[in-house]
Amino acid sequence: MRWTVHGRRAIYESPWISLDLVDVELPDGQRFEQHVVRMARPVAAAVVVDDQDRALLMWRHRHVTDTWGWEIPAGRVEAGESPEEAAARETEEETGWRPGPLRLIVASQPSSGSVDSRHYLYRADGAKHIGAPTDITEAERVEWVPLAEIRSRISEGEIVNGPTLIGLLHVLSDPARQET
């Protein structure tokens, strides 16, 4: 069943994000205003896995939730840049590692009921260390975390970020991967 959109009223707009009140009508005739957040640019992220069955992760603080957790490198796709280029750039800037060839594993909308924010998640098998991270504000530390530890880190609440969960669970569910 499709909802009918009767109009939109912008509450806030910036080059990064907009917040709208959208006048919607449900198929049963109910009508109300719904808050909708729209990100101005898509996000690109990379799950980088090495030949020792480890994922490249960053331990970082998120001020919005005031929590710490492990995340894959991710960031906005800049003007004139493809999502794949953005995933590679973000990985290099945030970790100091240049990912091997990237392949798209999924394009998702993590919270499509109220947020329009397309996320492109890539996988890279291998990476080359090119130096210290150039974006020193992103992570307290960068580590290669064994894939065998990922499920327990999720259970312990150390991995809660949506794109990170999607990417890592995709890697763990790969039938070509042998559990250790």
Brief summary:
The chain has 180 residues and is α+β, with helices and mostly antiparallel strands. Helix content is 17%, strand content 44%.
Annotate the secondary structure layout:
Elements lengths: L3 E10 L3 E9 L5 E9 L3 E7 L4 E9 L4 E5 L2 E3 L6 H13 L1 E3 L2 E7 L6 E2 L2 E7 L1 E3 L11 E6 L3 H6 L6 H11 L8
Parallel strand pairs: 3-10, 4-11
Antiparallel strand pairs: 1-2, 2-3, 4-7, 5-6, 5-13, 8-12, 9-11
Walk me through what this model shows.
The chain is an alpha+beta fold and 180 residues long. It folds into 2 domains: 4-39, no CATH class; 43-172, Nucleoside Triphosphate Pyrophosphohydrolase (Alpha-Beta Complex), CATH 3.90.79. The protein is built from 3 helices and 13 strands, in the order βββββββαββββββαα. The strands form 4 sheets. A 4-stranded mixed beta sheet has the order 1-2-3-10, with no helix packed on it. A 4-stranded mixed beta sheet has the order 7-4-11-9, with helices on both faces. A 3-stranded antiparallel beta sheet has the order 6-5-13. β5 (54-62) and β6 form a beta hairpin. It is elongated. The model has no long low-confidence stretch (mean pLDDT 94).
Low-confidence stretches: none
Structural shape: elongated
Sheet of most strands: 4 strands, mixed
Give the strand line-up of the largest sheet: 1-2-3-10
Radius of gyration using CA atoms only: 18 Å
What keyword list fits this structure?
alpha+beta; 2 domains; four-stranded mixed sheet; 3 helices
